[in-house]
Design a protein that fits this description.
Length: about 250
């Protein structure tokens, strides 16, 4: 497979076209941004950590019947993916109150939600990725009613699989963001990435509200040890997969 040209460059990844029209190459960068790119920096080896973690999680989800865009992981910071048209929605699933949920509702940080909360944000940097009601989402024709139902169903199943997986890593899955896309036949696939950039991950055994953070909040809030946290997540993910392979 040869790489042809850049299809799209985002804040954390470059997407290349390949000589196969249905296959793209996602190159994960070390660049980090937060607060709609107001804060910028670099996290050493983030591209490798996020690509490796995402690849393992996509494989795990595929094995559990979740359709994803993942094909393979030819280089540590590169993933071959099925070409999809991304639906411009950030689908956030929350298990525990944190981040913007606390800020916007007054819920106390760490409140365990009685059931997972699925939210839609408009993936639009110019507008600052606003929270959408379902009515607004349909008004803007970002997805059809049927697609919204399917996305919610998939997001909740993904949450159950990921919660269970991270539990085995002694990591609490607080919340995370998903993106979905449509392939050339109109099939809905989980796309983008699942990594410490897009999840809140707390070390289950640590009670200190700062020390427990193993995700991009360390960068957003200048908590230090960002690379170590990402590396720790990768090591635990690899160990969990290895243990499961040995047991099964
Ligand atoms: P929030 O609490 O800031 O709304 O974030 C919810 C989850 O979504 C959290 O796990 C981080 C993730 N997220 C992204 O992946 N990209 C973003 O641009 C934002 C704002 C959040």
């Amino acid at each position: 497979m040869s790489v042809l040209s850049v299809l799209y460059e985002g804040k954390a990844k470059i997407i290349y076209k390949t000589d196969a029209p249905e296959i793209l190459l996602a190159d994960f960068k070390d660049d980090a941004t937060a607060f709609n790119a107001e804060k910028r920096g670099t996290i050493k080896n983030k591209g490798i950590f996020n690509c490796s973690i995402s690849s393992k999680l996509f494989q795990y989800l595929e094995q559990n019947g979740i359709p994803t865009h993942y094909l393979d992981n030819p280089n540590p910071n590169q993933m071959r993916v099925k070409a999809v048209k991304i639906i411009p929605l950030e689908v956030v699933v929350r298990n525990i109150a944190a981040g913007s949920l606390c800020k916007q509702t007054g819920l106390e940080l760490g409140t365990v939600l009685k059931q997972p909360l699925v939210e839609f944000y408009y993936k639009n940097d110019q507008l600052g990725d606003p929270l959408l009601t379902r009515e607004r989402l349909l008004l803007l024709e970002l997805a059809t009613q049927e697609q919204v139902e399917e996305i919610i169903h998939l997001a909740l199943r993904i949450n159950e699989f990921l919660k269970g997986f991270f539990r085995q890593c002694s990591i609490t899955l607080v919340d995370f963001k998903l993106e979905f896309g449509l392939d050339s036949q109109g099939r809905l696939l989980l796309a983008d990435e699942i990594s410490p950039d897009t999840c809140r991950l707390w070390d289950t055994a640590t009670l200190d509200p700062f020390d427990r953070i193993l995700d991009k909040d360390r960068f957003r809030r200048d908590l230090g040890n960002v690379e170590n946290a990402y590396q720790e997540v990768l090591q635990r993910v690899l160990k969990t997969i290895e243990t499961n392979l040995t047991v099964n």
